[in-house]
Design a protein that fits this description.
The N terminus and C terminus are likely disordered. This protein has 2 domains: 96 residues, Pseudouridine synthase I, catalytic domain, N-terminal subdomain (Alpha-Beta Plaits, 2-Layer Sandwich), CATH 3.30.70; 140 residues, Alpha-Beta Plaits, CATH 3.30.70.660. The N and C termini lie far apart (76 Å). Strands 1, 2, 3, 4, 5, 6, 7, 8, 9 and 10 form a 10-stranded mixed beta sheet that branches. By secondary structure, it is an alpha+beta fold. Helix 1 crosses helix 2.
């Protein structure tokens, strides 16, 4: 058998190019999805997005998401990250965005796509998240808002709703408003809320905005579901502090419907636009809000 000479001997295999980390901001109508997290048995946002990415990129991806929204919850500014198995010079993020939107839109839309720093993690790098919950405070339902609002026919006192925000600000154990994780029953439910406020958008639309370091499951919906009876006068807003201190899920009221909730924004250290930190608790001047914001 001929032994290759030094000239004929094969050299070392060329090193594989480092993958390129990509960050995308995604919006979706959660009405017909069983949440974001991938689940083989049901239709989910993450499952659809992951499958579409694999089709376009021709390789599977490990999809990391900032907010694992529940069934029926919407998003305007959720963020995902994943690796493309090509060097950065060969990654066409604009083309990737176009392809995904043609496959998934309008139910799921990629609002932006960009190459991210190496090691960027959509979940771990996030420093704050903002949710919005919209209540339609009218006696007559609106078919055009039915999928994105919770209709409450009885009049709500905006002053009482705002007063109920005060105890939420700061770092607290939110056990009274959170579902205990099945996989980690002893997980900490301590969260830091930066701001919580109710806004009157006009025409019977009231919106609850809340900014926090992170959220536990059903936290925003349970808070809203507890506040609405206070706005309706069935409970006193001053009871909110005691409900929070109880650290007992049975102390709070019903969970508000998923359809009114939207993950509006996720903030990262280098975004340039920091999450607002105004005087908190729903008091003081508020900017005018557009109903279409």
């Amino acid at each position: 058998m001929k032994v290759p000479s030094d000239e004929e001997a094969p050299g070392p295999a060329p090193a594989a190019a480092d993958p390129t980390r990509v960050r995308m901001t995604v919006a979706y109508d959660g009405t017909r999805f069983a949440g974001f997290a991938e689940n083989r048995d049901v239709r989910t946002v993450g499952g659809e997005l992951k499958a579409a990415l694999a089709t376009v990129l021709r390789h599977p991806v490990n999809l990391i998401v900032a907010g694992r929204t529940d069934a029926g919850v919407h998003a305007w500014g959720n963020v995902v990250s994943f690796d493309v198995e090509r060097p950065e010079a060969e990654v066409d993020v604009a083309g990737l965005q176009r392809h995904l939107n043609s496959m998934l839109g309008p139910a799921v839309v990629v609002r932006s796509a960009e190459v991210a720093p190496a090691g960027f993690n959509a979940r771990r790098w996030a420093v704050a998240r903002r949710y919005r919950y919209t209540v339609l405070n009218r006696s007559v339902p609106d078919p055009f808002l039915a999928s994105t609002t919770w209709q409450v026919p009885e009049p709500l006192d905006l002053g009482a709703l705002r007063l109920a925000c005060d105890p939420l600000i700061g770092e607290h154990d939110f056990s009274s408003f959170c579902r205990v994780p099945k996989r980690i029953p002893d997980a900490s439910l301590v969260r830091h809320v930066y701001d919580a406020r109710w806004l009157d958008l006009g025409d019977g639309q009231l919106r609850f905005d809340i900014d926090a370091s992170s959220f536990c499951q059903q936290m925003v919906r349970a808070i809203v579901g507890t506040m609405v009876p206070m706005g309706a006068g069935r409970q006193r807003a001053g009871e909110m502090a005691g409900i929070l201190r109880a650290r007992d899920r049975s102390a709070a009221n019903r969970v508000a419907p998923a359809r009114g909730l939207c993950l509006w924004e996720v903030v990262y250290p280098d975004d340039g636009a920091a999450m607002p930190r105004p005087p908190v608790g729903g008091r003081g001047p508020r900017p005018r809000e557009s109903p279409t914001a």
